[in-house]
Design brief:
The chain has eleven helices and twelve strands. By secondary structure, the protein is α/β, with parallel strands linked by helices. Helix 3 packs across helix 5, helix 5 packs parallel to helix 6 and helix 7 crosses helix 9.
Length: 314
């Protein structure tokens, strides 16, 4: 805990889903100086705003979580925006941090950095062995440029910049907006909407054959801060739970946990996305002792309970 007590930490995206867990965990660890830039005050796509946020925060460590993200549909509708905004935020934040001589820059990448047909489990060394899945390639490539930048800056300037690649996150306080949500919150909302409307079936994108891995957001926050404290190498590191589940099994589990009695109808005219996703998580455990703690069914129950108790009341 002593590591964090005298550190000034800037968490971009600290007001968002994952950021709320990271800032809470920082407070638990004794960090007393946490700066969270809000979009209304700092548009981090603009270099003037990046310079201003560094002047205002004077951080020792930057944890860069801010991103423009969404599911398959949102990625297909906004490829240019997802590429440009994510690239410019990360590149400019790291450059300004380098110029100011900060202690550490923690860049959060994504599992979308990986090639479409990466052998399972995804090993960090495979990240350059092909082109990402087309529907989210602009987002994944924008994020992957931060890996290139971190390695280049370490080589030329000795900057302590690290790059982490988490799998799909989930948990209470997730984004349940159907226009931009990822698969778990989208499915939970779809099921509750159907129950409320008395519908006898739900329609789900794709065939159900694709597989995904999911990491509970609170566990992800712990992994990020362990890496921030203990990891100082150029190689990227996966953050995951080390399992995969088919979308078909995921839907059936959500249906079971929510008590929905209707049928599941698969819309095969819609894309599945990347065929399989599961990370090799051994590097994170070896390098900084991270291992996910929350079982998938337990995390899913907590997410559904939060949606019922908190989201639906609004």
């Amino acid at each position: 805990m002593r590591f964090w007590t005298d550190k000034k930490v800037m968490v971009t995206g600290g007001g968002g889903f994952l950021g709320s867990y990271v800032t809470a965990k920082l407070r638990e660890l004794g960090c007393r100086d946490i700066f969270v830039p809000r979009l209304e005050g700092y548009d981090l796509v603009q270099m003037d705003a990046v310079k201003k946020v560094y002047a205002d925060a004077c951080p020792d460590i930057v944890v860069h979580l801010a991103a423009v993200v969404g599911g398959i549909g949102a990625n297909r509708e906004n490829p240019g925006k997802y590429f440009y905004d994510n690239l410019m935020m990360g590149v400019q934040l790291m450059e300004e941090g380098r110029q100011r001589g900060i202690e550490k820059f923690v860049a959060l990448g994504t599992i979308c950095c990986y090639p479409k047909f990466t052998p399972v489990p995804f090993k960090e060394d495979d990240v350059w062995n092909g082109y990402p899945e087309e529907t989210n390639a602009p987002y994944g490539l924008a994020k992957k440029m931060l890996l290139v930048q971190a390695q280049a800056y370490r080589q030329q300037y000795g900057m302590n910049a690290i790059f982490l690649m988490p799998v799909n996150l989930y948990g209470p306080r997730d984004n349940f907006d159907p226009r931009s949500s990822h698969v778990i919150p989208a499915l939970i909302k779809k099921v509750f909407d159907a129950k409320h409307a008395g519908e006898k079936s739900i329609s789900v994108w794709g065939t159900g054959k694709a597989t995904r891995e999911f990491l509970y957001a609170e566990d992800a926050a712990e992994g990020i801060l362990l890496a921030a404290e203990k990891y100082d190498k150029p190689e990227p590191v996966n953050l995951g739970a080390g399992f995969e589940i088919s979308i078909k099994d995921l839907v059936e589990l959500i249906v079971k946990l929510t008590g929905f009695k209707g049928a599941i109808r698969w819309d095969a005219t819609k894309p599945d996305g990347q065929p399989r996703r599961m990370l090799d998580v051994s590097r994170a455990q070896k390098e900084f002792g991270f291992k996910a703690k929350t079982s998938f069914e337990e995390g899913l129950k907590k997410t559904i309970e939060w949606y019922q108790q908190d989201f639906l009341k609004k």
